[in-house]
Design a protein that fits this description.
Elements lengths: L1 H12 L15 H8 L1 H5 L4 H9 L10 H25 L5 H10 L1 H33 L7 H17 L6 H27 L22 H15 L8 H4 L8 H29 L10 H4 L2 H9 L4 H35 L17 H17 L4 H33 L3 H31 L1 H33 L12 E6 L5 H12 L4 E8 L2 H14 L5 E5 L6 H14 L4 E11 L23 H10 L5 E10 L8 H5 L1
Helix pairs in contact: 2-9, 2-12, 4-10, 4-12, 5-10, 5-12, 5-18, 6-7, 6-17, 7-8, 7-15, 7-16, 7-17, 7-19, 8-15, 8-16, 9-12, 9-14, 9-15, 10-18, 14-15, 15-16, 17-18, 17-19, 18-19
């Protein structure tokens, strides 16, 4: 079984990499900007559509608010981007939101930010892959009934790709990102230019008559709908925080180069998002999660179809680039989350296993957890990005609120000690920018709390709360373990004496091996122990023991109720009570079925992995009970069936 799993693992993952094969990645701004721009730029593929999906609930008349909603979202993006520019310069080590919050608010707030980031990465994969499938669906409509399973398959492929330790070429990622930006910009600029020239551009979905879907909306209800559209549209700001964790990718001066990259990517994202919203409003594009086929096409596909006259030569490259940039965004989460989980594990917030690299120099456990969680959410929400956005916004903006609030406190501390006028003026600007970002992100978070909780937002709260409590419990456990195992001051106290107890049921080769190992450790006393559950068998064992002249005393324990483990455990406890400073080592036999060529009767294939159920049950029971006894060590001595060699002659044991 073990060998079969090893072969399967090699086929799926590949041969292991040596530790020295890992290398750091340092990029110039020419490649770092498009490579890191994948996450924020990819949000343009689905964020504008979210605005129209929500406003469409009130009918086409509500689309009149879309430009103003888009401008409000753009204002949030500008505030967040401006604040992150100062963050990467203040923390050039690339700490990210978790490090920033922990450094300024302490470990409690840091755990909350860490829990929000966990959800952020999971939803980055789920939303990006779901949106990529939707983009491909516009080219292949037959994919629609299978969209959630297509998304799950894509997640599996990305996970396998990363488990093998493969990396996306920086030039390839940059090429896909540039292709998407160029395609989207071509749609916006060409569409606005044709409208300015007086051409009549009308989206095919504009012909939809929403009268049957409309109902009376009060002013208050319409205001809440616009607020909700603003909140879900603010998902366009996601991905900017990626730069705070990847500052080390830039060449020195890292902070300044990262700030320049954020400015460039942020400006492009704001321009593309705003232009897409305005163009969609001008051509009358409509969207619906459950309406006619024309309404279910992604907004990007509708605009490309409208601007370029339904030309496949334009639609296919643009939508393939859209799907490509979204899959790359999901892939960056597969790269970033395991590394972040490793940081959390190093800080005792997650199990230590997440801090270890696998055979291919990747954090395999983190990749598997991320893939499973993202695939589960995709299936639960039917593979639609619209259904997942509410959860996504909660995680993203909670971490952003904490991060920018922490930066506000950071700049206040700088002002408390800084005396240089120029630096004080810069710190004041940075603090004002951070406060503006806090207010903007808090507004989005509050709106989502009121409008998206019933639409699955409570799941986000449940996941974040569960992660926070789990991290707190793990941190408390690891702290207690550290305190308990820490070496005390002074010379450590050694045990007074050492006693070896060997479990004997019959005189055979495994028993002789246990006795030889026990005597090799040179304990103060060696005792063989057996339990009398069958008087005749016990008499035969004692007689054989005396006949062999084994130089180790044999103690026979009575067991009126034919129990084996109880008397042995009671005997060991009694030895410990009589001498609490002594150490007792109990030697137990363990029969192991060999995996190699068998000898003798075992070569017939009768023994296989299932035969382990026929052995070692007493050993397992004793090991379970004795491991909780202080000062008692349990040593299992294996005997590999069909492969073990004979121990030293019995006369040597007797000596």
């Amino acid at each position: 079984m073990t060998r079969s799993w090893a072969v399967l693992k090699r086929l799926l993952v590949g041969e292991p990499f040596a530790s020295g094969r890992g290398s750091s990645l340092v990029l110039s701004k020419r490649y770092a900007i498009p490579l890191l721009a994948v996450n924020p730029i990819s949000s343009v593929a689905y964020a504008p559509e979210q605005v129209f999906l929500v406003l469409g609930l009130a009918g086409s008349a509500a689309y009149a608010f879309s430009p103003w909603t888009g401008l409000a979202v753009a204002a949030v993006m500008v505030a967040v981007i401006a604040s992150y520019r100062y963050t990467v310069q203040a923390y050039p080590g690339g700490g990210g939101d978790y490090r920033v919050v922990t450094a300024n608010f302490g470990p409690g707030a840091g755990r909350l930010a860490a829990a929000a980031l966990v959800l952020d990465y999971i939803l980055t994969v789920a939303v990006s892959v779901a949106a990529a499938v939707a983009a491909l669906q516009s080219l292949m409509p037959a994919l629609q009934p299978w969209r959630e399973w297509a998304a799950v398959a894509a997640i599996g492929v990305l996970a396998a790709f990363n488990l093998r330790g493969l990396r996306v070429s920086g030039r390839f990622a940059a090429g896909v990102t540039v292709a998407f930006v160029a395609g989207t910009a071509a749609i916006v600029l060409t569409g606005l230019a044709r409208l300015a020239a007086g051409e009549d551009l009308t989206a095919a979905s504009a012909a939809h008559d929403p009268a049957e879907d409309q109902r009376e909306w009060t002013s208050a209800a319409l205001f809440l709908l616009c607020a909700r559209a603003f909140a879900v549209g603010s998902v366009a700001v996601t991905g900017v925080e990626t730069f705070t964790t990847r500052v080390r990718f830039f060449r020195p001066p890292r902070g300044r180069n990262a700030a320049a990259a954020i400015t460039t990517v942020g400006a492009a994202t704001v321009a593309l998002f705003t232009g897409t919203v305005v163009l969609a409003f001008l051509v009358g594009a409509q969207t619906s999660a459950t309406g006619a086929d024309a309404l279910q096409y992604p907004l990007i596909a509708q605009l490309a179809d409208t601007v370029f006259g339904a030309s496949p030569a334009a639609l296919w490259p643009i939508m393939l680039a859209t799907a490509g940039v979204l899959l790359l965004a999901a892939n960056t989460a597969f790269v970033g989350f395991p590394q972040l989980a490793s940081v959390f594990a190093e800080d005792s917030l997650l199990p230590r296993q997440l801090h270890k690299r696998g055979d291919r120099l990747v954090y395999s456990n983190g990749i598997l957890i991320l893939a499973f969680a993202a695939a589960l959410l995709v299936v639960l929400f039917g593979g639609g990005a619209y259904e997942l956005i509410g959860l996504y916004v909660v995680g993203v903006f909670l971490s952003m609120v904490l991060s920018h609030a922490a930066m506000s406190r950071h700049w206040r501390r700088v002002l408390d000690v800084e005396r240089d006028p120029d630096r004080r003026a810069r710190a004041r600007r940075a603090r004002a920018t951070a406060m503006a970002a806090v207010l903007a992100c808090s507004a989005v978070l509050v709106i989502v709390a009121f409008t998206a909780v019933r639409r699955g937002g409570w799941i986000a709260v449940l996941i974040i709360g569960g992660c926070y409590l789990l991290m707190r419990a793990i941190a408390t456990h690891y702290a207690a373990v550290r305190d308990e195992i820490e070496l005390p001051s002074g010379k450590p106290q050694l045990p007074s004496r050492s006693h070896a107890i060997v479990l004997a049921s019959s005189v055979n080769l495994p028993l002789m091996r246990m006795l030889s190992y026990a005597k090799a450790t040179r304990p103060d006393t060696v005792t063989a122990l057996t339990v009398n559950v069958d008087a005749a068998a016990s008499r035969r064992l004692v007689a054989e023991w005396d006949r062999r002249r084994i130089g180790v005393p044999l103690t026979v324990l009575d067991s009126p109720y034919r129990e084996i483990t109880g008397p042995i455990v009671d005997y060991v406890k009694a030895r410990r009570r009589d001498a609490p400073r002594d150490v007792v080592t109990v030697y137990l036999p363990e029969y192991v079925v060999g995996l190699g060529p068998q000898k003798g009767r075992l070569s017939r294939g009768y023994f296989n992995w299932s035969t382990s159920l026929l052995h070692n049950q007493t050993t397992k029971a004793l090991r379970r009970q004795l491991k909780y006894e202080p000062g008692v060590m349990v040593c299992t001595v294996p005997w590999i069936l069909g492969e073990s060699t004979e121990p030293p002659p019995l006369r040597r044991i007797a000596k």
